[in-house]
Description:
Lipocalin, 2 helices
Amino acid sequence: MKQTLALLLTIALLLITAHRLPAPIQEVPEVSPTPKPKREATKSKSEATPKPKVTPSLSFAGTWTGVTIAKNAGGDISSWDYIIKIPSDEKTIWVNWSRAGTKISGSGHQVGCNRIADTLTWTLIYNSTVATETLRITTNETANFVQDVTRSGFFADTWHGTGTFSRQ
């Protein structure tokens, strides 16, 4: 039994003190990448989807006239005759108006404007009034007009007006 014990002790010591050998190197066969199947030539997105026909922008240049019907928060309604003159560069406009049925007089107001697509927008500031106005061209001869007016001071009020204008 002593011999068996000595043998087991020797084996245990060998296992504890023995150096571990690295794992054997295994040769892995080279794998060439699988070629991707060739795709058929596809049309680019722009070719696949037909482009919408580009229609030339309608010009605002010229003189526009019309009548607006405006309503305030209290329900009061008023009508105004307008003349809007727009040069060919569409950078500034001349606006003049009067109560419907009365003669428009004076030089009006010149103000800078911005065009985005079929819409021309400007803000007119005079006395204690700020008016944001928009002219949206519908055809070469007509345009829709929208205005939002805020008056401050003694006659503080807000108005919203609309109208259809014609090119003269």
